[in-house]
Design goal:
174 residues; mainly alpha; 2 domains; 5 helices
């Protein structure tokens, strides 16, 4: 039976269809006026990204006072979850022990440590709490690339879609 399933899985893996991803390429205009316009777009992109980075850093600095309070709250939630986990684990072990004793077994058929059905909660790290706070409060993407693309197209450039195979690609023709 296992051999049949294995052969079926191997046979079907060869039938997987290729997966493609659309990638966009920006093609600049050929005339000098268009190229000068695109250079201005690039300058605006650089300025927008610099302003965005500055705004983001200011936001990160502004959430710093909230960080300690948020971290203490995360530690309290962790302690509560850990207490709840310990209580559930004790109840699980008692129930497991009583179920074997109730059936009249005089020996333990599974010696060694008991494994609870799910792992204990993880202690929150300072970095994870700060990253969550930054994600909630600070905007990292200011839309600079969208504005640059619109400017590029307005200058006479073209946006060309290309399909690229990313998985289960067919062999290339010679």
């Amino acid at each position: 039976m296992n051999l049949v399933v294995l052969l079926l899985a191997v046979g079907l893996s060869g039938c997987a269809t290729p997966r493609y991803q659309t990638v966009y390429r920006l093609d600049p205009p050929a005339d000098a006026a268009g190229l000068a316009c695109i250079a201005q777009c690039a300058e605006r992109l650089t300025a927008c990204q610099a302003q965005c980075a500055q705004t983001y850093q200011a936001c990160v600095q502004s959430v710093q006072p909230l960080f300690q309070e948020r971290y203490v709250q995360a530690l309290q939630r962790y302690e509560e979850a850990l207490d709840r986990y310990a209580a559930e684990l004790r109840a699980y072990e008692i129930q497991h022990w009583l179920s074997w004793r109730h059936r009249g077994w005089w020996y333990d058929p599974w010696p060694g440590p008991r494994w609870y059905p799910y792992p204990p909660p993880r202690k929150p790290s300072r970095e994870a709490v700060m990253a969550e706070l930054r994600r909630e409060r600070c905007v990292e993407d200011c839309g600079c690339l969208t504005e640059h693309e619109a400017c590029f197209l307005a200058c006479g450039g073209r946006k060309i879609a290309e399909e690229h195979c990313v998985a289960n690609c067919p062999p290339k023709a010679r």
